[in-house]
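Q: Hi! First time doing this. I have a protein sequence and I read that you can turn it into a structure. Is that right? Here it is:
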Amino acid sequence: MAAVAQALETSNVTSIKSLAESPALSSVPSAYAFNINPNDEADPNDPEFAIPIVDMSLLISGSPDQRAQIVRDLVKICEEWGFFIAINHGVPESLMKGMIDACHGFFSLPDEEKKEFKSGNDVLEMFKYGTSYNLALDKVLLWRDFFKARTHPEFYSLYKPASFSEVSLEFGKRTREVALEITKAISESLGLEPNYIYETMNMDRGLQLLAGNYYPPCPQPEHAIGIPHHTDHGLVTLLIQNEMNGLQVEHNGKWLTVNGPSNGFFVNLADQMQILTNGKYKSVMHRATVNNTATRISIAIPHGPSIDTIIAPAPELCEREGQAPKYLAMNYKEYIQLQQSGKNYMKSTFDHIRA
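A: Yes, that's right. Below is the predicted 3D structure, encoded as C-alpha cells:
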C-alpha cells in the first residue's frame, strides 16, 4: 500500500470532511501536499477565455435555421475548446438544486453510515464511496470525498438520505435527455447522421454515472488539490456545482476557472469522443481546486458508450479527411480499466492507444 494511504489509515481519518472539521487542523498534512502555480491560471476577464454558451432551446425547439447555426457553432467549439455551458436545456433549476441538496445530505451523514457504501476500486461497480481517489495508487491524497452510482443502463442509487433515490432517478433521466441531444448535434456537426454517435456507440445501453464530490474548506488551498488534472473516459460529461467555484479547464495553455450561471450545465467532451473523431474534437483536461471559505459540491454526470462497445475512429471521418486512424480500437470497459490503472496516474491514456 502506498505511503500516503498508510498515513491516512494511521491518522484514523475516514473522510476529508472529518479531517477538515478537526479543531486541531491549521495546515495541510504532508500526505495532501500539492502545489498549484497561480501563474498558470487564466485571467477571467480576458475575452480570449470567455467560455462558449450553447442555447439548447434552439437545438430542441428552434427553427431549422437556428438549429443549423448552433450545429455550425459546435464545430468551432468542439475543435478549439472541447467544452461549453449549456443553457435553456429543459432541466428544471429546482431539480438541479434538489440534486445538490441530496448530495449534501449524503455527505452530511455520519461516517459510519457512509461507510456502508464503501467498495473496491472498480469504477464499474454499482455504488462507490470513498475519499481521495484510489488509496492503493495515490501519490498525493486529494481534498475530497466522493460517491459514484451507475444510473444507466440499470439504475442504482444510494438509499440514504431518504429522498436521494427519487431525486437522482429524475435527475438522471433528464440529464440523459440533454446529453443525447448534444450527441445528436455533435454528430451533425461532423457531417454525419444525427443518430450516428447514438447508434455506433450503442448508447441505448450506454454507461451513465452520477458522481458527487465534496470539497470542504481547506486551511491552505494553494497547497492541496480536489482532483488533479485528468480527462474523462466517456463521450460527454455534464456538471453542476453549488455556489462555490473550483472547476478549472485547460485552454490555450492556461487554467480557466469555470463560472457559469447556476441553471446551466458545464459540458465537456471526453476521451471516446476524441477517439471516435480521430482527434478532430478534443477531450478536455480539467481539475478541481479547493478554497478556504466554504464547502464546494459538484455533481458530474458522465455519459459513454455501452461498456462492451469497441471504440475506434469513425471510418467515414477518416476516409473523408484522408487520414489513417490515430488510435487503436479498444473495448470501452478495457479502456476504463486502463485509465484507472496505476500506470496512468495523472497521465494521458491516449499514450497507450496511439496507432
